[in-house]
Amino acid sequence: MRKRLYIALLHSPVYNKGYEVITTSVTNLDVHDISRAARTYGVKRYFLVHPQETQRQLVEEMIRYWVTGFGSEYNPDRQEALKLLELVADIEEAQRRIEELEGQTALTVVTDARVHARSVSYQEMRERISRGDMPYLVLFGTGWGLVKEEIEKADVILHPIEADSDYNHLSVRSAVAIILDRLMGSWR
Amino acid sequence: MRKRLYIALLHSPVYNKGYEVITTSVTNLDVHDISRAARTYGVKRYFLVHPQETQRQLVEEMIRYWVTGFGSEYNPDRQEALKLLELVADIEEAQRRIEELEGQTALTVVTDARVHARSVSYQEMRERISRGDMPYLVLFGTGWGLVKEEIEKADVILHPIEADSDYNHLSVRSAVAIILDRLMGSWR
């Protein structure tokens, strides 16, 4: 597999409902659903990004149950998905890990609700990933989404998921599944 | 909008991990995530199918909070998504509701992990839905999925979501998001 796709779920800095910058708590299903989608679509690693060590430790303990504890025998499919998960404090740490693994820093990719002058289509992004010459790291935000500064800093901004819809409040779990399918899925 | 797509999430009869036929409990996030995806993609109604009245009542109470209670003011986006939700005891009841709304019974659509002789592509299904001459009801199973009899009874069987992957254990929430995007999404 030449495709080198990484994903990261950020719990900070993200917006809350009132567009204040906050840190969210880790949600159990963000760990499980997104790991399973990542494994299905051949993502190389899923970084759970949280600045607080206590939150990261809590998740480490939960993962241990599924990866080496009783859960690994009870449900080996979960084990396989959760092996992709790695806990990091910030995007920089995720990038350092990718550099260790790939010898290259990844280009960062985000989606936004708005179309930007430099927005890239899913078709084009698919082709870039297929070329395999660069690793890519797709960033997702919990809460009400990634802060503006993170969107602007990203190397690639994708088109909105459903620009024509009058409603755009997908859960981050749904958004990850849809974007992985668009970028990596093989369907007819 | 001429597209007449309905979805139903079945809690019975479905398989458990050992392929025994069971009834599952309602999961909070199956209500919220799937309602939001349904609303985003213009699904006409989301049927939550559970044979037990107590389970249906529990969900009704939760919905009331978001649709007419405090939650409706606090988070009107949730309200809008949850308005699509309807609780029914079985597929037949969902079909009777569709008949009331459309004057026609819907053709049922399922996905399966295997390719069947009569499996239909997503592209073809998209075109059929766009034609708008029939309502369609896509059935999803909780637990380890819809029982074989329901798959065989369905009018349309779609291709597996990711036939080329060596891993196919998406959550039902992810599967719904992906399939709605394939059938109804407008992306480039």
Summarize the structure.
The structure is a homodimer of 188-residue chains. Chain A is an alpha/beta fold.
Task: Note down, in words, how this protein is organized.
The structure is a homodimer of 188-residue chains. Chain A has a single domain (5-184), classed as SPOUT methyltransferase, trefoil knot domain (Alpha/beta knot, 3-Layer(aba) Sandwich). In chain A, strand 2 and strand 3 (21-22) form a beta hairpin. Chain A contains 8 helices and 8 strands. The two termini of chain A are 20 Å apart. Chain A has 188 residues and is of the alpha/beta class. The model of chain A has no long low-confidence stretch (mean pLDDT 94). In chain A, the strands form 2 sheets. Chain A has a 6-stranded parallel beta sheet, with helices on both faces. The first copy, chain A, has a two-stranded antiparallel ribbon with strand order 2-3. The first copy, chain A, has helices at 28-40, 53-67, 70-74, 76-82, 91-102, 122-131, 148-153, 172-184, and strands at 5-10, 14-15, 21-22, 45-49, 85-88, 107-111, 136-141, 156-158. At the A-B interface, helix 1, helix 4 and helix 8 of A face helix 1, helix 4 and helix 8 of B.
